[in-house]
Amino acid sequence: MSTLLQAESLVTPIHSVEDLHGYFQAHAKPQGEERVGIECELFGVHKETGEALPYSGDIGIERILNEIAYEFGYEPICENDHTIALQKGGTIISLEPGGQVELSAEPVRSIHEVKAQLDGFFFELKTIAHFIGPVEWIATGIHPFSSLDDIEWIPKRRYEIMARYLGRQGKRAHDMMKRTATNQVNLDYHSEEDAIEKIHLALAITPIAAAMFANSSISRGKLNGYVSERLNIWRYTDPGRSGLILSLICQHCNFSDYLNYVLDVPMMFLVRDGKWIVTRNLTFRKFIKRGYQGLTPTQSDFELHLSTIFTDARFKQYMEIRGMDGQRGHLIPAVSAFWKGILYDAEARRAAARVVRNFKDREIIKLHQDVERLGFRAKIKSIRVLDLARELVRISEKGLTRQGILNQSAQDEAIYLGPLKEEILKRGKTPGEQTAELWQGIFKHDRRALIDYLKI
Questions:
Q1: Staple 74 to which of 86, 104, 213, 258, CB 3.0 to 4.6 Å?
Q2: Any domain includes 2
Q3: Nearest-CA neighbor of 396 among 350, 337, 327, 355?
Q4: What is the CATH number of the domain that holds 295?
Q5: pLDDT higher than 50, residue 203
Q6: In the Cβ-directed half-sphere of 94, how many Cα atoms lie within 13 Å?
């Protein structure tokens, strides 16, 4: 979830819907200059109990942020004298509502660089944890031990408003905010046609990718009956602004269709003079037509509104793919590698489109729901998701090889799919299934063993 950084600097007024028609096209990147950005969320936990770290206190998230800022040269970002994020160049470390620590890394050219960014982030977190005390950082899709009430809210006005609003929209909205974590991938597009091809394909593939990376089978200290409880939580958060939106899966949608969808999603808030203003019964379309409490819309208002669209793939100034659970540290590069291999190679996109071309929109949505509990055992048109996943990874691997970006050892980016192939696809079991088996088996429900398994 976005951290507001100087949002009011974009004061260009919006007088009509037509003023926004060129917005997404204006952020297209020249062909050949595409970049990839990673967003990685982690849980800070007490080393012995696995319970969530509080925001405040001597062994709390705020102190950890302040120590990272001091030790590694980040600039603290504060709200009401509380540190809520850090920034260094194009890299931001921010907090999700339950204190999940998120890296939003500066966009780079290759997964080799993504891996280096992650290694640096992990080093910083572990260095400070060692200094502070009994702290571990775990990488998974849902908090394995703490309940909703056990997790402290971050003192951030945006989250306070969101909690009140989303709590009325879905029974699991607060679980989404405080108990889940993801790995997201940000990719560029170079034209409207390119963008629509990518987002349509991403949405069609998302249930299959969600199964490959399903990793939230243990919560509140026990098996929860899902391979990805996080997917189920999102389904009951705010259906009008999250998940797979039927109209966006349509092959014939365009930027105007996406804009119209966004304009009709209710707004949550505005910001003026540093103050957050709650909006009620207001879509952005109505805001353009009527204003609100004497205020009129600006481009920064629109970009703030875009940050409250939580579909599994969405447009901002780039395309963001959001449908995967958080992974163990060594698997996180595979998330961005998988999507880059398919979406940044024309031949791979065509091959992937052939894999899903016969699937109807509602079948894709049904599959997305089935994956929550069934993972690789889910089927669409009698085809196992496991078989579809293996084919898509083969396509991605070839795409990465054709892109030909090598590291210092002359290896291309396909190396980052290795753990996904060997540990997940070859075994035919999702990360969540494997974690559940370990928990029931050799871990014998021992929290410390699970923490050691999930830690970065």
A1: 86
A2: no
A3: 337
A4: 3.30.590.20
A5: yes
A6: 18
